[in-house]
Amino acid sequence: MSSPLILGIESTCDETGVALVRGETLLSEVTATSMEEHARYGGIIPEIASRAHLESFLPTLDSALEQAGVNLEEVDAVAVSAGPGLVGSLTVGISAAKALAASLGVPVYGVNHVVGHLAVAGLVGESLPQRFVGLVVSGGHSSLLSVRDLAADVEELGGTLDDAAGEAFDKVGRLLGLPYPGGPHVDRLAREGDVTAVRFPRGLAAAKDRQRHRYDFSFSGLKTAVARHVESAQGSGEEVRRADVCAAFSEAVNDSLTAKAVQACLDYDCDTLVVGGGFSANSRLRQLAARRCEAAGLDLRIPPPRYCTDNGAQIAALGAAAVRSGLPPSPMGFGPDSSMPL
Ligand code: KG4
Ligand code: ZN
């Protein structure tokens, strides 16, 4: 018998994603984004995002079904992001998922979006091992997770105490007058800069913090240091060397992320590190993670950038894992949980 056909729906923020997965095979994945509409405001406007989901959902679903070459009636279960995310955006996806599940007479699984960022790695490469350490880095989250079973047993080891990695990059992008979202622009400039030209502090580097916050991150002090550097250069009439600032800033963020992720693998005796989330498109993160995992004898799994940003495949992958693990579906009364725990 073939594996069940899972329809995955993602609508936590500005991306409307729909994907179809059978077992660990991705049949199709279609994403629409409202980012262009938000860009001129310099940040996500929740109401615009919710409306865009409403407009994009059916066309996105139709394209995903067509690309997979399946009919809606063949779907065996529906999985949807139940949180964390923007309540209005989540509500659109959850309402659609429930309506589809009820009309098809199939179960619906409300799953955790953050864990989905890790699950997708099993669709775009070899199957994931049962146990691994996960690093999820995006504009909304920077979390270090210990995974014993993707669908049923995920523990948060640590996370950011203030800004998420992508958020810190976006804020530094704004400080340097770069377009929103600044992350990819800061990354691009960083590649042209000299890492040693400016020295920025690492968050939580003091001895007492290293103990207490072994797996936590903090980027707001770093962002303030960048702001002071820019102000003092401008105040003294010097040119702000944006590429050097970006390189040093990027190094500080990625040094913390990769060092702590590798440390967690060693502490938890895991030989695989899985990285996901929109920020994992960052070139220095990929380089440092590869170098440090190789040195520590760890297997590094980072999906191609397209599957790192929010998408329906990550949700379908997690739904498929829930079905495989025999988990009960969600009760039909479930709603959005903007700060959903693991
Ligand atoms: O996962 P994602 O698409 O959306 C959520 O935040 O959930 O991640 C988007 C974030 C933004 O903050 C964006 O600036 C950042 O990821 N980002 C990057 C890069 N590409 C995307 N940050 C640094 N370097 C990049 N290459
Ligand atoms: Zn995300």
TrEMBL record:
Its EC number(s): 2.3.1.234
InterPro entries in UniProt: ATPase_NBD (IPR043129), Gcp-like_dom (IPR000905), KAE1/TsaD (IPR017861), Peptidase_M22_CS (IPR017860), TsaD (IPR022450)
Ligand binding (substrate): 136-140, 170, 183, 187, 282
Keyword Iron recorded: yes
Ranges of residues in domain Gcp-like: 26-316
Binding, Fe cation: 113, 117, 310
Gene Ontology MF: a single term: tRNA N(6)-L-threonylcarbamoyladenine synthase activity
SUPFAM superfamilies attached to this UniProt entry: Actin-like ATPase domain
Keywords assigned by UniProt, alphabetized: Acyltransferase, Cytoplasm, Iron, Metal-binding, Transferase, tRNA processing
Annotated localization: Cytoplasm
Cofactor note: Binds 1 Fe(2+) ion per subunit.
The keyword Zinc is assigned to this record: no
Cited CDD domains: ASKHA_NBD_TsaD_bac (cd24133)
Location (main, coarse): cytoplasm
Cited function: Required for the formation of a threonylcarbamoyl group on adenosine at position 37 (t(6)A37) in tRNAs that read codons beginning with adenine. Is involved in the transfer of the threonylcarbamoyl moiety of threonylcarbamoyl-AMP (TC-AMP) to the N6 group of A37, together with TsaE and TsaB. TsaD likely plays a direct catalytic role in this reaction.
Protein name: tRNA N6-adenosine threonylcarbamoyltransferase
Lineage of the organism: Bacteria, Bacillati, Actinomycetota, Actinomycetes, Actinomycetales
